[in-house]
Amino acid sequence: VPIFSHVFFVLLQVNFLACQLFGLVAAFWFRLYLSPKHASTTVRHAVATLLGICFVIFCFGWYSAHLFILVLGCYGIMVKANIHNVHRYSLIVAMGYLTLCQVSRVYIFNYGILSTDFSGRCFNHQPCRPYLSHEHSTCPSLPLMIITQKITSLAFQVHDGMCRKEEELATEQRRLAIKSKPCLLEYLSYQLNFLSVLAGPCSNYRDYFDFIEGSHVQKRLLQANGKHKGSNRLAEPSPDGAVLSKLLVCAVCLILFLSLTKALPISYNVDVQFISEAPFLSRLTYAFFSIQAARPKFYFAWTLADAINNAAGYGFRGVDENGHYAWDFISNLNIWKIETATSFKMFIDNWNIQTGAWLKRVCYERAPFYPTALTFVLSALWHGVYPGYYFTFITAIPITIAARLVRKTCRKYFLHSSTVKGMYDIVTWAITQLAVGYTVMPFLLLAVEPTLQYYRSMYFYFHIITIL
Fold this sequence. Notes:
With 468 residues, the chain is mainly α. The chain contains 21 helices and 2 strands. The chain has helices at 2-33, 41-60, 65-80, 86-108, 141-163, 171-176, 184-192, 205-213, 216-224, 240-263, 272-277, 280-293, 296-311, 335-339, 344-350, 353-364, 371-383, 387-410, 418-445, 448-457, 461-467; strands at residues 318-319, 325-326. Strands 1-2 form a two-stranded antiparallel ribbon. A hairpin with a 5-residue loop joins strand 1 and strand 2. The longest helix is centred in the first third of the chain and has 32 residues, at 2-33. Residues 110-138 and 227-231 have low confidence and may be disordered.
């Protein structure tokens, strides 16, 4: 079984990478030969959908049926359900189906707590290595997770547009509100388009529809130039430079993954001999660097997905403060801000950005009480059923609240000079990176036993600091 699992895992990785690279080529072709000038919106919707369907079938075989079942089932809800409850039904069905798939894969089919699962990660049964890998985009659930975000986002936006008064909506909710239900082709295109079906990112229906229609870039150019809709059409900027720079980032991340990530395995943090022999500071230092080394694979997957969307002409934000064209409208991360984050919030805001935006749209802004706690709970449910996920998000709640309180109370005393503020930033950077590493370690270890083993070896120090 371990040999079969390893071969299956490698095959999934190869298929995923092949599809993403083919998707990159197809994205250039889509922009150049199927632009709104050369093809109707119907053709663009149809081609994007068909390519996406081919990709998921090629990558996942019969597992791809789960995606089609969920998408078609939720379209039925969109069409038939009462508009006052369509968002609730869609959220319950999409999250319920995703959870059932994750539970069945991890527990019912006897793959165990450390095996191939539905959340894009594969593990072998090795007692001394609870963490073997943590790959995105290699199993069927990453597409299922992305589609769950899209289904629920669209349902809430349709509810906002067709059921709520404009004055009841926040500014962004008003911009994203959908006034009429999409037809089947539009719905399928949004959910299954080849640009984002394998690794995301999740974007909003209105922005995606503007892209297919051909007004995505123009709207942002007009905003940047202070013009109105009746103004002359402006020349569209080319995304080629942005795509090339992101592919270079992917190459660097791939090199780092093949070197640092393999050299600093997360599993060593719970190695019995290491825990018993190494002093606390050595274990803390290794945890710090192993967490840093675990990031390049995420950077690679998300940056490549962003480059594919940009290559098709999607993801233009406008003109930045330096007067340069910015192609980060649907980016999933900001590597520089992650690595230099001086607060827990700054790190979270720049990591998995589109998932954070989704959680804010469907939960945080709408929760009647305890919005922070409910948002973390939804995030944990969305990620999967491994106990480590819940350790991470439960730990993150008090750390987030404590960090917010400390920053609000203390930061103002360190702003009177640039030198003092610089020292403050260095200290808060180190604390933030330690807090992030401490919080996400269970997310990588997955199981209860190694998580508790790690926290015991760290003397639960951040839990105690947070309480104090």
